[in-house]
Design goal:
The complex is a heterodimer.
Chain A lengths: L1 E6 L25 H5 L15 E7 L4 E5 L2 H5 L4 E5 L23 E2 L5 E7 L2 H10 L2 E3 L14 E2 L6 E3 L2 H7 L2 E9 L2 E2 L7 E7 L2 E6 L4 H12 L6 E4 L15 H13 L3 E4 L2 H7 L2 E2 L2 E9 L5 E12 L21 E10 L13 H19 L3 H7 L17 H12 L11 E2 L2 E13 L5 E7 L5 E4 L9 H13 L6 E4 L16 H24 L7 E3 L2 E4 L2 E4 H5 L4 E9 L2 H4 L3 E13 L5 E11 L6 H20 L30 E6 L23 H13 L10 H5 L3
Parallel strand pairs in A: 1-28, 2-15, 13-14, 18-19, 23-24, 30-31
Antiparallel strand pairs in A: 2-6, 3-5, 3-7, 4-6, 8-19, 9-19, 10-17, 11-16, 12-13, 12-15, 17-18, 20-21, 21-29, 22-23, 22-28, 25-26, 26-27, 29-30
Helix pairs in contact in A: 8-16, 11-12, 15-16
Chain B lengths: L4 E4 L3 H9 L3 E3 L5 H6 L7 E4 L8 E4 L2 E5 L4 H6 L1 H6 L1 H8 L4 H6 L2 H5 L6 H4 L41 H7 L3 E5 L5 E5 L22 E7 L6 E7 L10 E10 L2 E10 L9 H5 L8 H12 L11 H20 L2
Parallel strand pairs in B: 1-3, 2-3
Antiparallel strand pairs in B: 4-5, 5-8, 6-7, 6-8, 9-10, 10-11
Helix pairs in contact in B: 5-9, 11-12
Classes of the chains: A alpha+beta, B alpha+beta.
């Protein structure tokens, strides 16, 4: 039985609120948590497969045509089985939802670090030694452009927008700012390096890997290999962090599959930490110019946001910096600019909230600058400029408790105690507080799941959805438990297998609402099947604790099933509600910092986020998502920067020692609060995405607090001490 | 990683003999194993000294004798060290992570290699790794690099916090040579500047084994270790200052400064200390000390900020030391 829904109209029923089990929204522990903390959740590269050998990718040390020299030397080394330079090897991972192979080939290195060969050996150590020894002669192209500032720019027509007359608005403004900020490149830097084990059985490939979107990844892998998707199965039940880096199939998977086929043995390929930095997606550096004009009454009359980003010459993705600028604030005169520099650097792709993470951050810095020059409280300035409708399209917002988030955050944080910039000091420490708005687009994606009620009354959820540390196992279990009236320990959820119905995957914050809805639909169908057996209307039947209550009678599910099992597949597709309204999530961040007047070191003392993001499916895992997002916000504000060598663009700080993510000592007390919300347009769950909202502006609250503490504006992220002491 | 032979030393002499024949000594391995995985170094033979009796912290006539195999964790937690040499305990705890400190040893810490990005990247030139090949850090990204003591051949910094504090405490090191003889050397004399041979970092000869560090009897003065870095922990120093200072009758009676993050070696200068002795603390004095420290400082681009940062940090540390040393 398939229950299909195209989301063409809002669902005002709020069915989850009317169920009896009472588990939805509860802070349920992750069902797989004990496996993970005891080391018994087996991640891709940890499988011990009989006869398995190991491959290590060899990298290009320069840009240009690759002339291989001494594969025969490496082949003669102990344990080495093969040196593979197959033209199907990937230049870089597929972009998220690509659904087809990315650029392939090993003849030309488009960037330093590109994988151009695979050395396979009996042991990992032998393979790594072989890959390091492999002499690859590159005919280095000295003309290859690696600096975005000197590169050819593309200005795609479809990515520009203009309405009204911004120049006139700026000229006539009572107050205005015209500021340029820069954000550096970022790496996803997931804990688990990319890894794959490929096994062929005849012409059937099974790949254990670490990927976020298996439906697409299967097609991308098949297309890369030139085989049918039906012959490919991918297993990713556990993913040790993705953050965008595992959206698309990546070089290790295709290399492992090619090698396994060639050798007739299972082959494992894991990226080294350095390779993760060099060969998986980076977030593009950005240069952003923001123009804001304000009238005497504190109303925005104009918003301009121009972004310069970069990518390899033939990549379609470009960091969608201005995505939320288009709807966050009012203003009749608007300009959006988007320019792409074509550079020979590591491929740019989706990393932790592409667009808003850097775009809202800079917009929120500019708003802080505007509030300062206009003499308006930053919270008040934002509240005055919340638009009634999407200012570009005139569409209504689906749900939005943005103003309440600003008010609630200000109250809880003690915003009224904020003082003039540079006026609060404790010993050598300059103290300041800052705030910023949060905003992120919301999307629903096609997704399927199968739910089976077994004769014993237990339910099984199956979908190829992934859990990348986000809590998918927990929330799908909760949705099924709520809908079927089962204690959560009577529901088991299996994920990450392309043999299961195909899901939306984890990315773009859409996973929970999309795959959750597919489970919801399957469960609604099962409820109907149960009601049919009871000869009552589904709505008249209450399911709770494994029992059905109807017509003043009580019957256990196992009695109703009477030895049968019932199955239903849920299938959600986005529909007219995606276009009819503006769907987004909102919030407000507040931060307090202390900046050393001696060294310029900044320490974040406390942070608060208040969010309006639809129904919260699990208070614990959602909170963890926001803690993670805001923690990455701390890093983005203060330390995180992927450094490209000025000469050949290679990534200089390609490990976790020198790529400075925030560590425990950098992260203060962070508090998270959700505003109760139901978004009827977003999904039948009334839930929206929460995975990325925590980083969509968080860094600006910190850098705005630095200004409040020191009177210093750092417009070049991250706000490292050198950029502050220069002005102290 | 290149295949290698593994020997377990039965005695210090055994280790020295193996090292004299080209073996590389391994203790905690927290740095060496990384270097080997990346093939920055590729020893044919490792000689493991971790089973030797080179541990223990004991009072001797010369001072506090710290065995070369005492881990950074144990040393930082030692009651005597915390009481009498707090600058050392603080420096140790400012370094690395708990896991690394549990493995890293006293002798190994002194001899750890630079964290220059280019030293670790074997596809780039590096005179320290591959003499004569050039220095990619010059003209590259050099945020963590040296402003003092560097050369046109190498601008790498020494990464240790522990050694900086030991230098300020005027530590001695005890060395067993290949012939079985034992000698002591001021820590200050261990390191050499890169000049045109950045691959040579110390005066140690093949077969030399550091067996202990000796801290002279406690100074009883105010001791401060201040480390400035890009994040709150788990990062190497951009600038660090170790300060041992005492006042008598309002004048500086004892002063010993050492610096990390500035140079290819833990940095100190006797003249800096001497210029403070007998002086009344003042802004002008501290400015002069900073001027002297940084007289020959040279930025490389991305690390230019270290010059003002070192000045500000040094002066703040001196002020703090004087304040705390007031009776």
């Amino acid at each position: 039985m398939t229950a299909h829904l195209k989301m063409d109209k809002p669902d005002h029923r709020h069915r989850l609120d009317h169920m009896a089990q009472g588990v939805i929204g509860q802070p349920l522990d992750r069902p797989e948590g004990p496996l993970k903390v005891t080391g018994t959740a087996t991640y891709a590269h940890e499988w011990q497969v009989a006869g398995m050998c190991h491959g290590v990718l060899a990298r290009a040390s320069g840009i240009g045509p690759v002339i291989r020299s001494d594969a025969e030397v490496v082949l003669a080394m102990p344990g080495v089985l093969a040196v593979i330079t197959d033209e199907r090897l990937l230049r870089n991972p597929a972009q998220g939802t690509a659904d087809a192979a990315p650029v392939q080939g090993t003849d030309i290195a488009a960037y330093v670090g590109q994988p151009v060969a695979l050395v396979v050996a009996e042991t990992f150590e032998q393979a790594r030694h072989g890959a390091q020894r492999l002499g690859l002669i590159i005919d280095v192209d000295d003309m290859a452009v690696t600096d975005p500032e000197t590169a050819v720019l593309e200005t795609p027509k479809g990515k520009q927008h203009s309405q009204g007359n911004l120049a006139a608005a700026m000229a006539n403004a009572a107050h205005s700012v015209d500021v340029t900020y820069r954000t550096p490149a970022h790496s996803s830097a997931a804990m688990e390096p990319h890894a794959a084990i490929a096994m062929w059985d005849g012409d059937m490939l099974t790949l254990r890997g670490s990927y976020q979107m298996l439906k697409y990844n299967r097609n991308e892998l098949a297309d890369s290999l030139g085989v049918s998707p039906e012959n490919v199965r991918i297993l990713s039940p556990y993913v040790g962090g993705g953050f965008g880096a595992k959206l698309g199939i990546a070089p290790e998977a295709v290399a492992a599959a090619i090698a396994a086929q060639k050798l007739g043995r299972p082959v494992a390929v894991a990226l080294t930490r350095q390779q993760v930095f060099e060969t998986t997606m980076r977030r593009s550096e950005t240069r952003q110019r923001v123009r804001l004009s304000l009238d005497e009454g504190g109303q925005l009359t104009g918003i301009g946001h121009d972004a310069w980003v970069s990518n390899l010459p033939d990549e379609s993705f470009s960091e969608p910096v201005t995505q939320a600028t288009r709807f966050l604030y009012a203003g009749d005169n608007r300009e959006i600019g988007h320019h792409i520099a074509r550079v020979h650097r590591t491929c740019a792709g989706s990393v932790r909230a592409p667009g808003e993470a850097v775009g809202v951050t800079v917009l929120e810095n500019a708003m802080d600058e505007l509030a300062h020059v206009a003499g308006i409280d930053p919270v008040e300035l934002r509240k005055r400029n919340i638009p009634d409708r999407d200012p570009e399209t005139g569409k209504p917002f689906s749900s939005r408790r943005f103003a309440e988030a600003l008010d609630r955050g200000a109250e809880r944080f003690g915003w009224s105690e904020r003082r003039a910039p540079g006026t609060r000091r404790e010993g050598e420490w300059l103290i300041g507080i800052g705030m910023a708005s949060a905003a992120r687009v919301n999307a629903l994606m096609e997704s399927k799941a199968r739910v089976t009620l077994n004769p014993d009354g237990r339910a099984v959820v199956e979908t190829d959805m992934t859990d990348i540390g986000t809590g998918t196992y927990a929330i799908l279990t909760q949705i099924a438990a709520e809908m079927l009236g089962l204690p959560v320990n009577q529901v088991s959820t299996s994920l990450g297998d392309t043999d299961f119905p195909s899901a939306a995957g984890s990315g773009g914050s859409w996973g929970a609402a999309s795959s959750g809805t597919s489970v919801f639909l399957a469960c609604e169908n099962l409820r109907s099947q149960l009601a049919q057996r009871l000869d009552c209307a589904e709505a008249d039947m209450t399911l709770k604790d494994g029992q059905a209550v109807f017509d003043n009678r009580v019957q256990s599910l196992s009695d109703i099933l009477d030895g049968d099992s019932l199955t239903a597949e849920g299938h959600i597709e986005p529909g007219a509600t995606s276009e009819a309204v503006r769907q987004a999530t909102f919030g407000a961040y507040f931060a307090e910092v202390a900046v050393s007047a001696v060294t310029g070191e900044t320490r974040v003392r406390r942070m608060l986020g208040v969010f309006s993001a639809g129904r919260i499916l699990n208070a614990k895992t959602a909170r963890s998502q926001f803690l993670g997002g805001m923690t990455f916000g701390v890093g983005m504000a203060l330390t995180e920067e992927l450094v490209h060598d000025p000469r050949d663009g290679h990534i200089v700080n390609h490990d976790l020692a020198e790529y400075h993510l925030a560590v425990n000592a950098d992260v203060p007390q962070i508090e998270v609060e959700f505003l109760e919300e139901r978004d009827d347009w977003a999904s039948p769950l009334q839930a929206k995405g929460v995975g990325e909202l925590g980083i969509c502006g968080a860094a600006a609250a910190i850098t705005n607090a630095i200004f409040n503490a020191t009177n210093v504006r750092v417009r070049d992220y991250p706000a490292t001490l050198d950029k502050i002491i220069a002005h102290l | 990683m290149r295949p290698f032979d593994y020997l377990r030393a039965a005695s210090p002499d055994d280790a020295s003999a193996a090292a004299a024949q080209g073996a590389t000594i391994i203790a905690g391995g927290t740095n060496l194993l990384d270097l080997m995985k990346h093939e920055v170094v590729a020893p044919d033979t490792l000689v493991d000294i971790t089973r030797l009796d080179l541990g223990g912290i004991e009072q001797t006539d010369q001072g506090l004798r710290i065995g070369a195999l005492v881990t950074n964790s144990d040393l930082a937690a030692d009651r005597t060290v915390r009481r009498d040499y707090p600058v050392l305990a603080r420096a140790l705890l400012a370094g690395a992570s708990g896991q690394l400190r549990n493995k890293a040893t006293t002798g190994g810490n002194l001899l750890q290699r630079t964290r220059c990005y280019y030293f670790y990247d074997t596809s780039t030139p590096c005179n320290k790794r591959d003499p004569g090949s050039g220095c990619a850090a010059i003209g590259g990204f050099n945020r963590i690099h040296a402003i003092l003591g560097a050369s046109n051949h190498c601008i790498a910094t020494h990464p240790s916090d522990m050694a900086v504090a030991m230098l300020a405490l005027r530590a001695l090191i005890e060395i067993t040579g290949a012939g079985g003889d034992t000698r002591t050397l001021p820590l200050d004399d261990l390191y050499v500047l890169p000049g045109d041979r950045p691959d040579r970092e110390t005066v140690l000869n093949p077969g030399d084994l550091i067996t202990a560090v000796i801290l002279p009897p406690p100074a009883g003065a105010t001791q401060i270790y201040r480390k400035v870095r890009d994040r709150a922990s788990y990062a190497f120093a951009l600038v660090s200052v170790a300060c041992v200072l005492d006042l008598q009758d309002g004048k500086i009676a004892q002063a010993s400064l050492a610096f990390g993050g500035l140079a290819p070696r833990p940095w100190s200068a006797k003249a800096l200390n001497d210029m403070m002795l007998g002086e009344t603390p003042s802004d002008a004095l501290f400015e002069r000390v900073a001027d002297h420290l940084l007289a020959k400082a040279k930025g490389q681009g991305s690390n230019d900020f270290k010059i003002p940062l070192a000045r500000r940090t040094l002066i703040a540390v001196l002020h703090e030391a004087v304040e705390r040393a007031q009776p």
